[in-house]
Design a protein that fits this description.
88 residues, Serine Threonine Protein Phosphatase 5, Tetratricopeptide repeat
């Protein structure tokens, strides 16, 4: 799982977005309980202007953070969602 997540981050950094999305999807298939993967993919969707997908992934990551007891990260992501929704 870490290989896909790391490789996705590298693809994202060099603007190879399609490969990044594929690797994020693989990482999620293997470990759907890692909020950082959803958050990273949400950032990519946001950069691409795919706001609905970004919001869905930010919310999923926030839910996972809440389940893990990380309310700070949960609230940070929900604040991002709120800003996106207010700007539309």
């Amino acid at each position: 799982m870490k290989i896909y997540g790391n490789r996705a981050t590298l693809h994202h950094a060099v603007a190879n977005y399609q490969n990044a999305l594929s690797d994020y999807a693989q990482a999620i298939n293997l470990r759907p309980d890692i909020p950082q993967i959803y958050s990273n993919r949400a950032n990519l969707y946001y950069q691409q202007g795919k706001l609905e997908q970004a919001i869905a992934d930010y919310r999923k990551a926030a839910d996972l953070y809440q389940q893990q007891g990380n309310t700070q990260s949960q609230q940070e992501l929900l604040a991002i969602v709120s800003k996106i929704e207010q700007s539309n």
